[in-house]
């Protein structure tokens, strides 16, 4: 898909992790830091800790539990919120995000953050990034009881935050989320070329992948 004509956009729906924020924080946290902490807490080798966690992650990936701080605190016997605060210095905003958000506000777009992030995680990230004032509204999947990639999420969102799907832009790094939104009828969809600045590039047959928010600064 080509870049949308932003004159045709009234509402901008934005994902947080991997879209506005560098996904490196989350990948480091779940794939490196938590295995080390779990290994120490349960006195098992790091390799065994990693294997256990990868299996548990895969069992709930894509569901609301996957994003839930309380769920993982219970499951792993670790204070997940506290551990996130310990490595919060790694939270970073992708380049040109501030410019894009400032421009969208100046142009009168209705800007809504729509995130799977748990409220505890969201609070930490808003404290570190100071993005909160750019949004007309913030909606979490925990508020709606469904992850964004689950059928029914976008209907619930529209009941809460009215928007015209034909004049709405969604930017998200999760292709399953974009495909779910497309099925619901959201017309303008953009993905992210490299959600994790230290990770691999992504590709998609239909969605334009932003290499930088500089591409769409209004």
> Spans with pLDDT under 50 lasting ≥5 residues?
none
Reported by name, the CATH topology of the largest domain is Rossmann fold
> How far is the first residue's CA from the last residue's CA?
19 Å
Which CATH class of the largest domain is shown? Alpha Beta
How large is the radius of gyration?
17 Å
Number of helices: 9
How does the overall form come out from the CA principal axes? globular
SSE sequence, one letter per element: EHHHHHEHEHHEHEE
Main pleated sheet = 6 strands, parallel
Tally of DSSP β-strands: 6
Structural class: alpha/beta
Instruction: Give the overall pLDDT as a whole number.
Output: 95
- Approximately what portion of the residues adopt beta-strand conformation? 5-15%
Spatial order of the strands forming the largest sheet: 3-2-1-4-5-6
